[in-house]
Amino acid sequence: MPRHSLPPQPTWLRPRLVVAFVVATAGLATAIWLPTRNDSADASERDRAGNNDRRDRDRTPSLTTFADDFDGKRGSTVDPTKWSLNTDQADNGLSFRESTRNARLDGDGNLTIVLRREDEGGFSSARLLTKDRLRATSGHAEARIKTPEGDTARPVFELIGAGRQGFGSFDVLKDSLSDDFHTYAVDWAPGEAVLSVDGQEISRITPEGGLGTDQSFRLALSLSIADDRSGDGLPARMQVDSVSFSAANATEPPATEPPATEPPTTAPTTEPPATEPTEAPTTEPPTTAPTTEPTTEPPTTAPPATPEWAPFTDYVAGQPVKFKGVEYQVLETHTSLPGWEPTALPSLFKKL
């Protein structure tokens, strides 16, 4: 070996290997750091999006009317624009599910909610809430429901507070029957709520919380397991024919206006004494009057005119009523509210 030549360097100190090692180390560090950074960003975005969702829900305008008669194909689910199926709750062995085994349309205009025992243990059912929030300081909510027999299942039709200061819940089915369909309703105003079944008042109560105040709420339907958890009589079925809600405007039709605009006292006092007593004996002989008058007066037996539909009016089943020139027959006894026109509620009126 020449004297001026250098001793060979170790292989691990060659420049190319050093550069490759540095590049590989930097790539590994970047690969570890980027996912954690993205995870933090994603978490921040999710939190920001969640807060925005809550703020958006709080700003969502509340509806003053709602109705569903559950028309649809047999075996299909409910209208997703009107209802959401709650799956968050599961207690005492009961779980609420989205399956059509627990909530489905029967094809005849009814919703069927089924409470059943599951093979793996426990019970399953369905709980429906209106998609949109509702609001009314004074209003009327009703549902035509056939409840199941027995003590195993507990049917529920309730108003649930939906605002940040919600009033909890208010169950309308406090005294439910199970022999057939019945209309369960609640009418409320600030400080008082009236429960009724088939138009007959059941009780008057003072609701707690926000019912009767300017608080938003949702309507809910469910079939839960009752204290009797033996499972006897399962599956149990609750059928719902229709659900409706309407806000009442306390400033609408005052009861004192009609008498004020139609005074019946002035007409009879001025006309009869002024003209009839003086002319009758002088111009018309008494022999002709009896022959002509009996033939012209029978039209007094003409049937009374059909009354026009109006809100806040008590209607009886079978009663005729006119709306926009068309006659209808009342199908169910009820008290009308704004938005309950015959064209809007075919379940209450039949076109003649």
UniProtKB/TrEMBL annotation:
<dbReference type="GO" id="GO:0030246">
    <property type="term" value="F:carbohydrate binding"/>
</dbReference>
<feature type="region of interest" description="Disordered">
    <location>
        <begin position="39"/>
        <end position="90"/>
    </location>
</feature>
<feature type="compositionally biased region" description="Pro residues">
    <location>
        <begin position="255"/>
        <end position="275"/>
    </location>
</feature>
<protein>
    <recommendedName>
        <fullName>GH16 domain-containing protein</fullName>
    </recommendedName>
</protein>
<feature type="compositionally biased region" description="Pro residues">
    <location>
        <begin position="296"/>
        <end position="306"/>
    </location>
</feature>
<dbReference type="InterPro" id="IPR003610">
    <property type="entry name" value="CBM5/12"/>
</dbReference>
<dbReference type="GO" id="GO:0005975">
    <property type="term" value="P:carbohydrate metabolic process"/>
</dbReference>
<dbReference type="Pfam" id="PF02839">
    <property type="entry name" value="CBM_5_12"/>
</dbReference>
<dbReference type="InterPro" id="IPR000757">
    <property type="entry name" value="Beta-glucanase-like"/>
</dbReference>
<dbReference type="Pfam" id="PF00722">
    <property type="entry name" value="Glyco_hydro_16"/>
</dbReference>
<feature type="compositionally biased region" description="Basic and acidic residues">
    <location>
        <begin position="39"/>
        <end position="60"/>
    </location>
</feature>
<keyword id="KW-0378">Hydrolase</keyword>
<dbReference type="GO" id="GO:0004553">
    <property type="term" value="F:hydrolase activity, hydrolyzing O-glycosyl compounds"/>
</dbReference>
<feature type="region of interest" description="Disordered">
    <location>
        <begin position="246"/>
        <end position="312"/>
    </location>
</feature>
<dbReference type="GO" id="GO:0005576">
    <property type="term" value="C:extracellular region"/>
</dbReference>
<dbReference type="InterPro" id="IPR036573">
    <property type="entry name" value="CBM_sf_5/12"/>
</dbReference>
<dbReference type="InterPro" id="IPR013320">
    <property type="entry name" value="ConA-like_dom_sf"/>
</dbReference>
<feature type="domain" description="GH16">
    <location>
        <begin position="55"/>
        <end position="251"/>
    </location>
</feature>
<comment type="similarity">
    <text>Belongs to the glycosyl hydrolase 16 family.</text>
</comment>
<dbReference type="InterPro" id="IPR050546">
    <property type="entry name" value="Glycosyl_Hydrlase_16"/>
</dbReference>
